[in-house]
Structures are given as structure tokens and as C-alpha cells.
Design goal:
Blueprint (H helix, E strand, L loop, with lengths): L6 E2 L2 H12 L3 H22 L6 H19 L9 H19 L6 E2 L2
Antiparallel strand pairs: 1-2
Helix pairs in contact: 1-2, 1-3, 1-4, 2-3, 3-4
Length: 110
């Protein structure tokens, strides 16, 4: 099922996260990462005193970690070869799918 056809379990934070993870334009990537981080932090603050949202809090923590790694390895700033950059970026995208809407645990089919 294509990523765009999934209904996100946590759309407030997952949609900006997904947009950042799938962005391939280095000029837009930094902006999308920042937006996704802000959305995740805002949602994290909304939930920090809640005892009912353990799975979402874990997903937010994982997303923030992945966004930090992605921000540190942006294509324009990476000094490794193109092959290594593409490989690392693809691994990040694959790992980020756990939060970005393709995971069966976080996505709900309609």
C-alpha cells in the first residue's frame, strides 16, 4: 500500500515527519526537518503529563531521534561519497517508516 494511502495513527506529528523523511530536495529538507521537530516537540509537551499515551510518546521519541540523525547527515553537508550518502539516507528512511506511517503498528487501514 502506498504511503500516501495510509491513515496515520498520530497525524499531528506523523504528517510533518513523513514529509521530512521522504523529501529528496536538500534545499527543502532542512525546513521540513525543522517543522517535523517542532510538531513532535509540541505534541510531546501536550502528552508529557498523560499516562495513557505510552506508544505515542515512544513514537515521538523515536521520531525526534531519527530527525536529529537526518539533520546531521543532510545531503548538502555530508562529506562522504554519493553512494554512502544515498545508502545512509535510504537506511534512515527505512528505519523511520516505523514512525512515518508505513508501520502496521502505527498506521490504520481504512
Amino acid at each position: 500500500m502506498p504511503m500516501k494511502d495510509l491513515v496515520l495513527k498520530y497525524p499531528t506529528s506523523q504528517e510533518p515527519y513523513r514529509a521530512a523523511v521522504i523529501e529528496t530536495n536538500p534545499k527543502l529538507l532542512k525546513q521540513k526537518i525543522s517543522g517535523a521537530q517542532q510538531a513532535a516537540i509540541l505534541r510531546f509537551k501536550e502528552l508529557e503529563n498523560s499516562s495513557d499515551h505510552h506508544a505515542e510518546l515512544r513514537a515521538l521519541t523515536d521520531a525526534l531521534t531519527a530527525l536529529k540523525i537526518l539533520a546531521e547527515t543532510t545531503w548538502a553537508e555530508c562529506d562522504k561519497s554519493t553512494t554512502e550518502r544515498v545508502s545512509r539516507y535510504e537506511r534512515l528512511r527505512r528505519d523511520a517508516q516505523l514512525f512515518g506511517g508505513t508501520s502496521r503498528a502505527l498506521a490504520v487501514k481504512t
